[in-house]
Amino acid sequence: MKISVVGTGYVGLVSGTCFAETGVNVTCVDINERKVEMLKEGHIPIYEPGLEDIYKKNVEKGRLVFTTNLEESLKDSDAVFIAVGTPPDEDGSADLKYVIGVAREIGRTMDHYMVVVTKSTVPVGTSVKVKNAVLEELEKRGEKVPFDVASNPEFLKEGSAVDDFLKPDRIVIGTDSEKAQKVMKRLYKPFLLNGHPILFMDITSSEMTKYAANSMLATKISFINDIANLCEIVGADVDSVRKGIGSDVRIGTKFIYPGTGYGGSCFPKDVQALIRTADENGYSLEILKAVESVNYRQKEVLYGKIKRHFNGDLKGKKFAVWGLAFKPKTDDMREAPSLVIIDKLLEEGAKVIAYDPVASEEGKRILGDKIEFAKDEYDACIDSDALVLVTEWPEFRLPNFRVLRKLLKNNLIFDGRNIYDPEELNEMGFTYYAIGRKPII
Ligand code: NAD
């Protein structure tokens, strides 16, 4: 089989590479010439564990190619996957200009039957718009080329995207065409050998599924963060509470870790977009509105602890920030809590020196010379007033606290992810603040 994947971001590049891994011929298309050049020259523009190996293997086999030319990519394709960005518009709704732009280009250039698949996260009703955009362009050409549309939301997680794509919990496909169903079933069969299901449904339900899934996950995070803040006020330990509730299978242990709020390119924008979809349909999603406002507040919780510790005077203080990415194992800093915390510290006249195992380059691009960048986690702590842990990279979990005690000016740690053991830090003479736990002072 042959497919085109339009957009070579986290979703497009991972999907295209993983499809190639099953023997499909894949052409990945992007309008960003620099990205395509990099990919042609053997360099991956994003960090994603495991991606480089299968990318190289499939490029060598000739099954994975890159181009800026959509028309060329569509030749002989059985399906074209639209995987371009859907950033939030000013009012929070998903901006569909890239998706519809690609749909129009497909309509202008396609010359045989194919399935036009929307993989980007798009609001209910978008597949109809995609269909209409393709039809309009075909009409302008005065040609009748058959095609079907399908919605195929992506559930991969940055940081484990390759694994998630190769071994998905489920595949969701919305289409009203049997022919499209057959094509999609064939393409996805190799990924379903582990027995996980392919769920066919109507297009509207498929589009809705993606938003409902991300909103549910964001709800779990805001819920536990809210509980964590209350735990602190009443003197409970959220870590015990988390274990206490998580052992109930109806609740489960996943996604109930308190922290500095959710970030990334998906949860914030998808929660906003679903609220907007509801508003447009005359319904108010009260829970999600609260999820969003709790999250805004949570991004400032760690900063609030820092400010209170220093009695409001942060001027001239220096903070070592560990972790910039919105979560471990990615270089993505979109909507990262680190940005809010750093901005707040800088506003108060503090200095920041940051280290991230992978996202430091992205940090330099976004923050420029507003902060310093350390060569490693210990380097960041030299003469810093405190360590501020924002992203729980595995290498931050067991640092040498004896060394930290020597490097830091004060034995002071603010842990935004509750990864350290309060008792251990207490024994070592640290002052330790975490989320939803009694501070060790
Ligand atoms: P991204 O910003 O990393 O990549 C989007 C790519 O599309 C860019 O390389 C851009 O140059 C390209 N592009 C834009 N317009 C184009 C056009 N007309 N033709 C060709 N290429 C074009 O985005 P992403 O993180 O991969 O997300 C893509 C979509 O998938 C979004 O809707 C997102 O919500 C959804 N999604 C993302 C994730 C994730 O973890 N990142 C997970 C599931 C779903």
TrEMBL record:
Entry-linked Gene3D superfamilies: Cytochrome c1, transmembrane anchor, C-terminal, NAD(P)-binding Rossmann-like Domain
Q: Which residues bind substrate?
A: 155-158, 210, 255-259, 263, 327
Task: List the active-site residues.
Answer: 266
Molecular function (GO) terms for this protein are: NAD binding; UDP-glucose 6-dehydrogenase activity
GO annotation (BP), single: UDP-glucuronate biosynthetic process
Q: Which reaction does it catalyse?
A: UDP-alpha-D-glucose + 2 NAD(+) + H2O = UDP-alpha-D-glucuronate + 2 NADH + 3 H(+)
Task: Give the pathway annotation.
Answer: Nucleotide-sugar biosynthesis; UDP-alpha-D-glucuronate biosynthesis; UDP-alpha-D-glucuronate from UDP-alpha-D-glucose: step 1/1
Q: What is its EC number?
A: 1.1.1.22
Source domain of life: Bacteria
Q: Which UniProt keywords apply?
A: NAD, Oxidoreductase
User: Domain UDP-glucose/GDP-mannose dehydrogenase C-terminal, which positions?
Assistant: 320-422
Family annotation (PANTHER family) = UDP-GLUCOSE 6-DEHYDROGENASE TUAD
Say which family it is in: Belongs to the UDP-glucose/GDP-mannose dehydrogenase family.
Name of the protein in its database record:
UDP-glucose 6-dehydrogenase
Q: Which organism is it from?
A: Maribellus comscasis
